[in-house]
Amino acid sequence: MSKKVLVISTSIRAKSNSEVLAHAFEDGAKAAGHDVEFVSLKDKNIAFCKGCLACQKMGRCVINDDANEITEKILNAEAVVWATPIYYYEMSGQMKTMIDRANSLFPRDYQFRDVYLLSVAAEDDEETDARAVSGLNGWIDCFEHARFAGKVFAGGVDAPGAIEGHPALKEAYELGKTI
């Protein structure tokens, strides 16, 4: 059965390694027959959350920028895939800001059930992405029908294009096919 999948690339670097990894996942999901939409935060205007909680009543953020449109896409997706570079053993600031700005989803009838994390880092230790996974799980824990469904981490990836030939590309493709 075809699912509506949203892939969110949070790197602001053109043709970033995490974006290449995200496209591999996207290709796998499309090969499995899913309806996949790819969104990049690059060139998006996304301000910091003000913590006013007006979104809980309004169903949208009071800040009128690109985050509201992306939040609606998250709301209507059945699977959400976050792709991020790992900076200082954590998700990118852009990813965290978008997660914060999607706070209006909490009281709404969100459709997503499966949430995935794709990440890359210069560090190659298998625990390099642990804090990013933990941070994403903190968001997922706020949605009783959602679950952390899987991850792909590409370590030893630093300079632009360094992900070429990395085994994580095949892993991401295969994970995309399993949705």
Low-confidence stretches are none
CATH fold topology: Rossmann fold
Instruction: Please give the alpha-carbon distance between the first and last residues.
Output: 10 Å
Q: How would the global form be characterised?
A: globular
One letter per element, helices H and strands E, the order comes to: EHEHHEHEHEH
Q: Widest sheet: strand order?
A: 2-1-3-4-5
Please count the beta strands (DSSP E, at least 2 residues each). 5
Question: Can you characterise this structure?
Answer:
The protein is α/β, with parallel strands linked by helices and 179 residues long. The chain has one domain (4-177): Rossmann fold. It is built from six helices and five strands, in the order βαβααβαβαβα. The protein has helices spanning 17-31, 55-58, 66-76, 93-101, 130-140, 167-177, and strands at 4-9, 35-40, 79-85, 114-121, 147-155. The chain has a five-stranded parallel beta sheet with strand order 2-1-3-4-5, sandwiched between helices. The longest helix has 15 residues, at 17-31. It is globular. The model has no long low-confidence stretch (mean pLDDT 97).
